Amino acid sequence: MGSHGIRDKVAIIGMGCTRFAELWEKGLDDLIVDASTEAFSSAGVAKDDVDAYWFGTAQSGMSGITLARPLQLHNKPVTRVENYCTTGSEALRGAVYAVASGAYDVAMAVGAEKVKDSGFQGLNAVNPPNDGTARTLTAAAMFSMVAPAYAQKYGVDQETMADVLASIAVKNHHNGARNPRAQFRREITKEAALGSPRLAGTLGVFDCAGVADGAAAAIVVRAEDAHRYTQKPLYIKALSFAAGSGSGLIDPGYDYTHFPECEAAAVDAYAQAGITDPRHQLAMAEVHDCFTPTELVLMEDLGFAARGTAWKEVLAGTFALDGDLPVNPDGGLKSFGHPVGASGLRMVFECWLQLRREAPSERQVATVDRGLAMTHNLGGYPGEMVSFVSVLGSELG
Amino acid sequence: MRGIISAGGSVPYRRLARADIAAFMGSGGGKGTRAVAAHDEDTTTLGVEAARGTLRSVPEHTPDTVLFSTSTPAYLDKTNATAIAAALRLPGTTAAYDFGGALRSGTGALRTALEGTGTTLVVGADVRDGLPTSSDEAAGGDAGAAVLVGEGPGVVAEIAGVASASDEFTDRWRAPGERTSKLWEERFGENRYLALGQDTLARGLKEAGVDAGALGRLVVTGMHGRAVSALARKLSLPEGVVEDDLAGTVGQSGTAHPLLVLAAALESLAASSAPAGTVVVLLHLADGADALVLRTTEALAEWRPSRPVAAQVANGAPITYSKFLSWRGQLQPEPPRRPEPARVSSSAAHRNEEWKFGFVGSKDRTSGAVHLPPSRISMEGGAVDDMVPVAMADANGTVVTSTVDRLAYSPSPPIVFAIVDFDGGGRYPVELTDADAEEITVGTRVEMTFRRLFSADGIHDYFWKARPLRTGGDG
Questions:
Q1: Which of A157, A222, A243, B274 lies 20 to 30 Å (CA to CA) from residue B125?
Q2: What pTM, to 2 d.p., does this model score?
Q3: What is the CATH number that goes with domain A10-118+213-233?
C-alpha cells in the first residue's frame, strides 16, 4: 500500500488556455474548441493522434459526449469527470495515469466551464434531490470563518489581519494585470481592497475570486516520447489527491485555521517529487486562492511558511512576483475568476509558460532556474474538502 | 380526575410597536405591541415550540393523541399535526389530527380533550394577518400554545364543569384562500358576545357548583377585542381575578389565544403559590361562547413550566414595520440573485425523519463521537453500524465561530450562521434565527428551534435552527 507516484514517467507536450472572462459571445462548445485547438497546435498533433480524452466540467454538461460532439471525436474513449472545484485537475490525473499505465500513448485533458449563462451571481451548485437539511451557505461565507479563527489563534489584531488579506488581493491583481488571459487586468490599491463592500463575514468583494467562463487543455505522452513533440516538455513529478471525510464540519476539534486535506495532498506530492524544502526548491506555486484567507492558510498547509507565520511572510512580500517564492504569478483565481472545470488546468498552463520561460517578461519569475513548479487546487469548504497538488518540472531527474 | 397536566406557549421573539404602523402609513396602529412570527415561523413551527415547552415540563407524560387547531394552516389536505408529532418524536402510534380552521377550534379541541380519554396534547397556533392600517393588523398577534390533558396525580387543574353556546351570526369571516378577514360593524358582535358570554359563564359555574364570588381567575379571550374587554368589565370581579389577556403585548392570536392566556394564568397561579382548589375559568368568545371551569390541585405547586409565557412576553425585540410587511409578503424586496432552493424530496425527508424533524444524530458507542446528521460509520475509529441515536433538539450549545452571508438565498437575508458546539458533545454548523448579526459572538449560548427554512412547489422545508438562549434558562 502506498502512494508511489509516477515521477518522470509522463510529460506534457502541449497546452491551450482561453482568456477567462464573462465571454457572452462564447458557448461551452466554443470554449472547448478554442482551448483544444490551441493545445493540438502547441503539441503538433491532430485530434485523431490523441488516443483518449478526459473532460472536466462541474456543471456545464454531462458525459464524454459534451467534449466529443464539439471536437467531433469518433468513437474515442472520452471520460467526463467532476470533483468539485478540482475538476480540471481531475481531468489531468485521468489522462496522466492512463498514459503512465501504458494503456494509451497520447492522452488529453480538457477542462471547461460556462458559468455566466446561469443568470445568477457567483457559482451555484445544483444538488441532487435531498431532505432539505443541508446548508445553503455560499462558499464565501464558509471560508469567511477562517480569517477570524486564524487571527484569534495567532494573536493577529483585526487591523493587521485586514492588511494581510488586502495584501494578498493586491499581489494577485498586480500579477493578473500582467496577464492577457486574465479576467481582471487592473491593479488595485490596498485601500480599494479594504473599502470594498462586504459579502460574507469580513470578506469584501476584493477578497473573493471573480466569476468567469473559460477552458484549458493539456496533452500528455510518455516521458521518453516527449522530445518527439517538443524541445521543452514539462515532466509530471507528482500528482496527489486527498478527499476529506467531511468530519471537520462536525468535529469539535477542528479550528478553521488549516485545511488538513491540503496539507495531506502536499505531503504526498512532495514525497513523490522528492521535495524537502518547497519554499526554496519550487520556482513558483499556483494555489487555489478562492478567497484571500484561503491563500493565507495555504501558505502554511503547503509548507511555504511555518504555522502562525504566513501573515508575516505575506506582509514581507515573500510570495510576490519578485519574492522568495512567487505564488500565483498568473494572477490566480482572484484575477482569472473560477470556471470550475478549467481552473486546475489553467494553473498548470502558467507552470507551462513559466518553466519554459515563455511567460511575458513582466511576470516571468526570476526563480525559474529552480526548474520545479506546483499547482494546488481545492474544492469544497473548510471541514469538507477535496485537494489536489501537482509538481511539474522542466528537467528529468 | 381528568384535567390539565401541563401548558405552555410560544411567543415569537419579534414585536411590532403598533405606533410604527401609523408612523409609516399615516393611519392605523394603536398602543402597545403585537408579536410577529419570523419569516421562518408558521403555525406548525409555533405549535411545535409551544408543545416542546409544554412536554419538557412533564417528561413522564407522553400524549397518545395530538389535536392541532389553526386558522392559518401551513397545508390543507395534508395533516399539519403529523409534522408536530414528528418534531416532538412522538411514537408512530400517536393519533395526530388537525382540528379545523375556525377561531373557535382551539377551545373546542381543549373541551373535547377534557371530556375524552387518554393523554391528549391540544395545540393551537395562529399567524394573524390584516391589511395595512386595519384593526386586525394591529390587534392580531402570532403565537402558539399547547395544553396537555390527561388523568392521574400529575393533573394541575381538574375539569369541574363546561358550558357552551353556539350562535350563527356573521361578525368576522374569511373566504378560503384569503389572508385577511372582513368584519361586520362591531357593535352588533359586541352585543351578541356580551349576552352569550355572560350566559355561558353562568351555566359553566353552575355545572361546576361554583359561586361567581369564588372565581379565582378568569381568562376571557376572543377576536372581538371590544366584546372581551366589555365583558370583563361588566362582570365587576375583584382586582386581579381577570387575567391579562395579552392583547397589549402579544395581540389576539386566534385559535392559540385562549390556550396561551390559560397557560399564563396557570403559571402565575403556580408562581404565586395560589391554594389548591382555586377556580380558573376559560371563557372564549367565538361564534358563540365556551366556558371551561377548572379547579387547581396540589400538583400545581410542583409544576415548573420550562419556558414560561410571561418570560417570553417579556423577552421580545422590535421589528420595523417595513420588515413586518416584507415577512408577510405585503412588501417584496429584491431577493439575492441566487437560485431558489429546489423542493424537498418527500422520500428522502421521510427516510431521514428522525434527523430532519427530531434533530436526532448518532453517537458512536465506542468513541462517543456525535455525528450530525447520523452516520453509519464513525469518524473516530471507523466502527461500522455501532451507533446509538442521540437526541440533540434539547441540547444547548455555544457558538465557536460565526459569519454573515449576504449572498446566499434566504427569504430574509442576510443569513447569520454559526458553528455550534453542543453541551455534552457534538458540533453542527447551523443557521441562526431570532438574532441580529452583531449580537452573535464567540461564546454566545444558543438553543435549537424548529423552523421552516423555505417553501418550494408548495412543500415546506422544516428543519432546525439555533437561536440565542434568552428564556427557559441554561440547564
A1: B274
A2: 0.95
A3: 3.40.47.10
